[in-house]
Amino acid sequence: MNDMITVRGFVASEVKSSTTTRGTATASFRLGTTERRYDRTTNTWVDGNTNWYTVQSFRYLAGHIGCSIKKGQRVLVVGKLRLRQWEHEGRVYHVAEIDAESVGHDLMWGSANFTRMNGTSTPADSAPAVEAPGTPDSSNEWDSEDHQPVPPEDESIPSNLDNPDGTGPLLVNTTTGELVGAGV
Model pTM greater than 0.85? Predict the structure, then answer.
């Protein structure tokens, strides 16, 4: 089965981030969706059954999920539904997995700040400005090719996502929420 699905629910586990042997970033979490309906006899909302999914993501999306999504938050997930079953000790088990293409916060339950990232996992609005031809050279502290803007250490904390080049965990800028020095 390779059907597209959109699911609205709550993050039921901590995000598990890792890197494959080929250096591809991955992230996964459990997602629960509970049906709610209004019971006219008691004039209250009641919970119905809860469906459980394992949400898997890769590459840039995995890095962004690792920095943005936390247990207990309400999210929307769009991706490919995969239903698997296996047998262990005579018992058949079933699991529903979503290979995520998009994940975002459900703004019905709160607000969020969005930081657009470009291809190098730095905010798109922090790219150096292109000067018009004939403009005199300005003294820009970021002109050096090997110097990358990195926020001060007191603004960065380690994330749960390992850097693919093997230098340890990626850092998250606590002010902007972006990955620092990510080559993911």
Answer: no
